[in-house]
Amino acid sequence: MSFLDTLRQWDTAVTCVDRQDLSEALKIFLSIQEPNSKIYFDIGCLHLLNQDLDAAEKAFDCSIRKDEHLAVAFFQRGITFYKKQRYEESLADFQQAFKALRGNQLIDYKALGLIYKLYACEVLHNMALAQAQLGNWEKAQENLVKALDYKTDAKLNIIDKALQSTLKQKLFKPVEFPSKVLFKPNKNYVAELEKKDYLGKATVVASVVPQDEFSGFAPLQPQVEDSPACPKEPEVLRALEGEPHTVLFEFVPETSSELAVVPGNIVFVLKKDADNWASVIFNERRGLVPYNYLERLEISLASKQNGGKSEPPTREPPARPERKPGLTPDNSSRDTKQKDARATDNSFIVKVRFTFNFAVSVPPGSSYALLIEKISKKINLPSTAIIMSLTSEATGQSVINANTEMESVWSSASGRRLTLWCIAKEQTDGKPQNEIHLVALHSYESSNPEDLNFHEGDMITLLSRINQDWFEGQCNGNTGIFPASFVEEVPDSDLNK
Length: 497
What we know:
With 497 residues, the chain is α+β, with helices and mostly antiparallel strands. It folds into four domains: 3-167, Serine Threonine Protein Phosphatase 5, Tetratricopeptide repeat (Alpha Horseshoe), CATH 1.25.40; 235-305, Roll (SH3 type barrels); 346-424, Phosphatidylinositol 3-kinase Catalytic Subunit, Chain A, domain 1 (Ubiquitin-like (UB roll), Roll), CATH 3.10.20; 437-495, SH3 type barrels, CATH 2.30.30. It has 16 helices and 17 strands. The strands form four sheets. Strands 6-5-4-3-7 form a five-stranded antiparallel β-sheet, with no helix packed on it. Strands 9-8-12-10-11 form a five-stranded mixed β-sheet, with helices on both faces. A five-stranded antiparallel β-sheet has the order 16-15-14-13-17.
């Protein structure tokens, strides 16, 4: 079967799915003689819809054999194994899917023809569920705590609910892929399936050669050598219409639409999407590159072409904090996570609910002084300004202070996990003590989900100073990190005016 025939049948099958004619779609898919990895994936999804788990498993096996880097295929086969109650195999596939994410928070498959985003936190969620089914409750809790580092605001609720369930050693529902969402063939290829001849066969209208029988076009007069020619615009100048960026990490493409780059390359970002991919140009070639592999670069010519507008601020945001995933190479990210895992093996994980949620690691049986010190550093408030409690309402016996018997507090922990609530003591005017407010000097927009976006003049509440270059704050109901050079502190006297 030719490529065009495969493409035509693939497009017809996807159209049948859009019309809800699933049986006809599956029939067409199965008639394709040499399916690629994406087509096998689509076949597996349709078998899952029909609850034919054995056929779905075989289809996803073929999809993975065709493309061993297709994380979403491992994810779907893991779901299939889970439905067949083969939890060890299900866990192994979810682990492979997480590995294929390569430390990124998500993979957006839109560029490959699948309208779906595979989130790392959801993969970890299902890993935890498979471990819970195997009775490994501590491992399940560790994966859910790790998922908090990869979560987005939209996924926080599902991770929190799963974590609460594991603390009670109760099972929870898996995150499933919407099986009617399928890989679709490239729309540009589909548009070229039927070629149209708009000109017809060329014929000679006039010729300088008597009795010319040439069937085609020929010039009636010689070209003028010294005629004014329009100079070709250099590719580099066209590229400068985009934003210049330096490549931080090597990127090896997995599809024809992606572009290979190495550290030190200068690329020009033509379009930056919210899905963490950027369309760039490099060496007169265009392709897709993960945006978190790039760092913006100032070039004077680029700023002139932008109309001479000043760029805020004079230097770019510094290197991102190490505690945030996604911008470090795979090996170093993996090493860091392994060190964190080793550090928490003999420690208690204390999840703290404040205006934002976070977790701290402390030695078993830690004193009140050590615990409050860790929390106060995290939320940038003195220990005297914090009320800590075992419940959401800081009343009666639930309040933890210097007089509390800490053995009773740690005895309430389950599986070396403890949840506490913290609130800031209020002054008479209703504002927390030592609350620091910042004003945005410049607008800051970032495609990274963990960043806090704001506009010039916005007021930001400082939550913590991650390092000298990055702060964590809250603005307009959103919480995230941002460059310290984009803001300045507002004196209390100005706030009271």
